[in-house]
Design brief:
15 strands, binds uracil, four-stranded antiparallel sheet, alpha+beta, 3 domains, Alpha-Beta Plaits, Structural Genomics Hypothetical 15.5 Kd Protein In mrcA-pckA Intergenic Region, Chain A
């Protein structure tokens, strides 16, 4: 069994976004930082950073925020961007304010366009992020596309061919699976994450995406009870299906 990392109490709380080291010191002095019901009074005390810490520790009566590694599943709503660099409201604003001050920071695993909805993962675990987005991992992402014009019937073969070259690119797309659901809706599963890939694939066959929703990554479905704008913690045992 690997040993849990340890951290100084004040650094742990500061890294979880509870405030500067000085602000955290004040919380400790006030006696509102409890472990197993007893106040902790030494900011330099080292604690084993285990997953059960949030069940054992309270700050002002509320359970400690989950320590890293933390992975979230979020239902991205329309109209929010995935990057701090883009203008407009971003997905990080949908999280509790304190979670935006964490170190290591939470980052989205890949991105969805501002007008794409659906399953978005965020994590502070760089190794995990890399495993999901690595081109070598070929993690499948399934989209529900709503189209402007009816499908013509030739799209599935072209998308599956591994020969479709998008404008401005030098390598063809890897094979993708199209499953028509109606004349103007289809599931499209891709294993890459090129810029605006799904929209550009349909543009390449003379169509136009009017609605795009990601409903699955690997074998992990967007939970039906997770409303747009809502998130929840993705438990470690829920992460394996991503690579199925
Ligand atoms: N492909 C797109 O075109 N947009 C997305 O948001 C995701 C995949």
């Amino acid at each position: 069994m690997t040993k849990a990392p340890t951290a100084r109490l004040d650094r742990l709380l500061a890294n979880l976004g509870y405030g500067s080291r000085r602000e955290v010191q004040t919380l400790i002095d006030l006696g509102v930082v409890l472990l197993d019901g007893a106040p902790l009074d030494d900011p330099g005390q080292r604690l084993a950073v285990t997953a059960d810490l949030s069940a054992r520790m309270t700050i002002e009566g509320a359970p400690l925020d989950p320590p890293p590694p933390l992975t979230l599943i979020l239902h991205k709503p329309l109209g929010v961007v995935c990057s701090h660099k883009e203008a407009g409201r971003n997905v990080y604003e949908l999280l509790p304010a304190r979670w935006r001050r964490r170190n290591p920071v939470l980052s989205t695993i890949g991105r969805l366009d501002v007008d794409t909805t659906g399953l978005l993962l965020l994590t502070d675990d760089g190794g995990f992020l890399h495993r999901v987005i690595s081109p070598k991992a070929h993690v499948a992402k399934r989209y529900l596309a709503t189209l402007d014009r009816p499908l013509q019937g030739n799209e599935a073969a072209l998308f599956a061919s591994g020969e479709l070259m998008l404008e401005g690119e030098t390598a063809p797309l890897r094979p993708a699976v199209l499953e028509p659901l109606s004349a103007t809706t289809a599931h499209l599963t891709i294993v890459e994450g090129r810029y605006h890939q799904v929209r550009r694939m349909f543009a390449a066959v003379g169509n136009h995406v009017v609605g795009l929703h990601r409903d699955r990554i690997g074998a992990l479905d967007l939970p039906a009870d997770l409303d747009p704008g809502r998130h929840r913690i993705l438990k470690p045992e829920e992460q394996a299906p991503l690579f199925a």
